[in-house]
Amino acid sequence: MCPLGNEKIVHSQPRRRAVDTMNSIKFLGVFALIFCVSPSLQYDYKVKTFDTKLDHFTFTTNATFKLRYLINDSWWDPTLTTSPIFFYTGNEGDITLFSDNAGLVWEWAPDFNALVVFAEHRYYGESLPFGNLSFTDPKYSGYLSSLQALADYVDLIAHLKTVYSKRDNAPIPVIAFGGSYGGMLAAWIRMKYPGIITGSLAASAPIWQFTGMTPCDAFYKVTTRAFKVSGSQNCVDTIKNSWGAIDSIAASDGGLQWISQTFKTCGTLTDKVDLKNYLNSAFVNAAMANYPYPANFLAELPGHPVKAICKKLSTTSKDPKVILESIFQGVSVFFNYTGTSKCLQLDDADPEDLGDQGWGYQSCTEMVMPICDRGDTMFEKSEWDMQTISDSCYAQYKVRPVVDYVRNLYGAKELAYVSNIIFSNGYLDPWSSGGVLHSVSKDSMVTGAMQGAAHHLDLRASNPLDPPSVKRARQMYRKLMNKWVREIL
Question: What quaternary arrangement does the UniProt entry report (predicted)?
Fold first, then answer.
């Protein structure tokens, strides 16, 4: 259970420096990782490595690299036929962060007598196939893909089943867990390898946030809904009016200097886009981290941060300066809740550079998630310009996106064959826009959008302030997983 005030949020997205003029790519693959940092929640594990193939889909090379994973076998009982492997499909970052994040896995492992494994995603953390050269050239970075990562996990599972074999070689159930991109991987590994993965919990997994599957404006619509539900319509209107207010003041004599002074930026603004990007990020991240208890993002966040932000946005004035003064008070909840920050650092959006190079690359190859705004939300109108995005990707990584890659690879929305996958989403989570919110087969479970829940809240350690929807969902997960591990026998 996470003690109040001991949460930390790590946010990852492609670097904006290469895409500042591309309003449509601002949130191409934005995810948040929230994890406990309390000393009482330092989970025990051993750090190991596994030699996995560099390329699982060729017969011409046997090159390998060392994939890092974390393991705890203290609850494992090879004499019990139902003892499973709890396998976390690592996301876009250092695997130790995800281990700290997924409290549900640790809470349930003793009761299930589970072998706990957190596998690091290739090209993230310490699992770099070419070390410091991994992102210097496409000939090195070209082995980074979700499909290669899934194959890594499958080979690691096969290895673990050999090391931790059961009495009489009884079958070993494997339950995959993952949140956000890790949740996408948890779903896909069950789809691709149903003979190896017994079942999966895919928390806040936007597997439908791709071209032709979800409208590009859905993400900002859900974010706006979160602010309206948790805050107020006046809050939404004030944020919507702020973009024009920035334009108006920035165009006036001394306007950028006034904005800089009002927002207490660490340096004088030279471009209004920098502030707009920061505010855009702040509002989206506040919605994703809209938890019922205090958390930490750059600085401390209160419980229900969207509500706290909206309390500051109470103005009904149409005066641009009054609007922006109100916006500053609201965004101060995000970057300076404790009042200890001396200035607003606009380019410090990533507190821990989580998977920055790797996710930027994946966003420019396979993880092409269209996000736009048609002018009917609290955000500024923006287009999804695939050609501009492609050109920017080529300039930065020497690769171009394959728009239909993921859709064709993992079955798009044709999931009637899917079984033993739990798709969970939070009603307040912007990424629920691309999540599975309705039943796709008779043998999968969909929680819909859990009321009062933000980004993969259900995967985290339990907390007394968790909403009833999350508590009920976890009870259903547990019953299903108990059923899965018995069905394999």
Answer: Homodimer.
Q: What angle do CA 118, 184, 375 make, to 5 degrees?
A: 135
Residue 377: CB atoms within 10 Å: 21
Q: Can you give the pLDDT at residue 440?
A: 86
* 180 a catalytic residue: yes
Rounded distance between C-alpha atoms, residue 36 and residue 149, angstroms = 26
Between 235 and 31, name the one with better pLDDT: 235
Question: Quick one: CA dihedral 280, 281, 286, 287, positive or negative?
Answer: positive
Q: Does domain 7-212+405-487 have CATH number 3.40.50.1820?
A: yes
Q: What is the pLDDT of residue 24?
A: 37
Single out the catalytic residue among 127, 145, 180, 363: 180
Say what the pTM is: 0.92
Cα 471–chain centre separation: 21
Of the residues 94, 217, 373, 429, which is catalytic? 429
Structure token pair of residue 171 = 């079958």
Q: What is the mean pLDDT of residues 240-259?
A: 98
What confidence category does residue 442 fall into, taking pLDDT thresholds of 50, 70 and 90? confident
From the list 94, 455, 456, 458, the catalytic residue is 455
In the chain, domain spans: 7-212+405-487
